[in-house]
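Notes from the 1:1 (GR / supervisor)

We went over the backlog. Supervisor wanted to see one worked example end to end before approving the batch request, so GR pasted a single chain during the call. The sequence is below; no edits were made to it. Supervisor asked that the structure be written out right there so they could see what the output format looks like.
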Amino acid sequence: MSLDQTVLEAKRIGVFTCTTLCPLAEAARRMVEEDVSALVVVDNEGCLAGIITRTDLLRASQSSPDWQCEPVQTYMSSDVVVVTEDTCLAEVAKLLLEKQIHRVVVIREQDGKQHPLSVVSAADLLYHMVN
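Structure output shown during the call:
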């Protein structure tokens, strides 16, 4: 098991995003097409605004008959756990366990704003544990 790599060494950079005003139906379609369990939500400048997960979409579908038309910002979580590119995978594992979450967003801070670069999930960590 090698979790002493940094996020940058272990994960290719790239993130699936949607905007805060994106309709939930479009976000759901994107998750299915890209085979991901969450999308990073960005504002008009491409800065981190939140995260929307499959569970959030299920919650929306149970809460509103017109859930598909609701904007992502209605159901997203804006309290996102973030790490930087130089964070080691062992620290990511510790955060996932402590916070009882499934993923963290890798960001680069620039001019006081957080720019999402990637997502590291529990599945990614498991991959690195066995390879």
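Supervisor's comment: Residues 81 and 104 are 5 Å apart (CA to CA).
Batch request approved.
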